[in-house]
Amino acid sequence: MAIDVIINQQGPLPIKELFNSPGDEPVVLEVNGSVWTQSPNTMIGIQVWIDGNVVGKAQIFSNTATTHRTVVPAYIQLQLPFGQHTIALTPFPGTVSDVNDFYTAVIHT
Predict the structure, then answer these.
(1) Architecture of 3-108 per CATH?
(2) What are the pLDDT tens digits along the chain (109 aa)?
(3) 8 A C-beta contact, residue 12 and residue 34
(4) Distance (Å, whole) CA 101 – CA 70
(5) What is the dihedral of CA 44, 50, 52, 58, to 10 degrees?
(6) Helices and strands per DSSP (H, E), number in the chain
(7) HSE of 102 in the Cβ direction (CA atoms, 13 Å)?
(8) Where are the domains of the chain?
């Protein structure tokens, strides 16, 4: 199984990158990162967009405010046509990210 890293960078969100689909076969997109909130007892996370459409989310519930939390990794099945696409990682409402947060998105083929 091959892995293509398409995002590996420091925050803040949003992050947007161009990438090339390795083919038109099914793939799995894995998204990881960290986020935080200013409000306790809040679901926080990262929305994952491909070509302008939400395809998934990586999230975690935060019981406390102002603590960076690692989201539960998202594994999203995709089947993209061969060629160039756009991925965007954006914060959920109430979610904060800054230079202390890091993000990774990889395609497993």
Answers:
(1) Sandwich (2.60)
(2) 688 999 999 999 999 999 999 888 999 999 999 999 999 999 999 999 999 999 999 999 999 999 999 999 999 999 999 999 999 999 999 999 999 999 999 999 8
(3) no
(4) 9
(5) -10
(6) 0, 9
(7) 3
(8) 3-108
